[in-house]
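quick one
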Amino acid sequence: MARYQKIKKISKQRFNSARETGMKIYLNGRLLDKSDAKISVFDHGLLYGDGVFEGIRSYNCLIFRLKDHIERLYNSAAAIMLESPLSKEGMVEAIVKTLKANKLKDAYIRVVITRGEGDLGLDPRKCKNPSIFIIADKIALYPEEFYKKGLEINTVPTRRNINEALSPQIKSLNYLNNIMAKLEAINCKVEEALMLTQDGYLCECSGDNIFLVKGSKLLTPQTSMGILAGITRAAIMDIAVKRNMAVSEAMLTRYDLFSADEVFLTGTAAEIIPVVKIDGRRINNGKPGNITLVLKEEFSKLTKIDGYRYSL
Ligand code: PMP
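structure w/ 4'-deoxy-4'-aminopyridoxal-5'-phosphate:
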């Protein structure tokens, strides 16, 4: 190996290990080094995807719509009869503690509640102590160029879980439905997968909600279609209403998608990202639309004022 490459490799290893030892993870009331934060192989969160989670962002020491994320987390837990060892207030404290320990003003925060350690059977009653862990880190879901140029996505054969089997409103640790869809997108060499309902209506992407712009109207699949009620989705709908746009939650078809003026996705990690090609059809001549860009700009303003403030 050339000397220069060797030095580069060693300094990269040093950089990584420094970052690893520096990161603190909240695990069941304690802040631990990343390498010490461990969960049992008997935890049903791992064995069965039995648990719930949230993905949250903080912007310059403001945790965006934290109250809504906490509500959704506790609603998900209630739906699977999982009692959080922390109260909602305790959970907020634990999140802030994790951000402070990692000295993060801007972060992506992952909060997970697992069923806890049990035996090899399914019975959740055997899991006496649910586990809570919180990771606060940086995240860039897509490279910056996609925010400027827009994404290419496909509708995929994997249908979204039906409400009657496992409601997509529950943000559970079982994301295989979404991962199957994502694999199909990857196999087609596009960035994201749009899942349809059993009846073929538009539903949601593997980790994002979808919006269509038609004229001056904003359209998005209704929650009864079996989508996660996204917090970014709600924020965009609030912004559009304030700007006097007509907003409608509807049953939408692939034709609506192909004939839309603009399309974009929303999610905590992705934020607002334009879509310029779907199933090979170009949207808005393959360019991010103006309304999308205005809403994206307004969303960015909202992240400066709407949230839970903390100090480092
Ligand atoms: N749908 C799914 C399946 C998701 O995982 C996410 C990300 N949490 C979203 C939509 C977007 O929701 P939010 O805006 O609350 O992050």
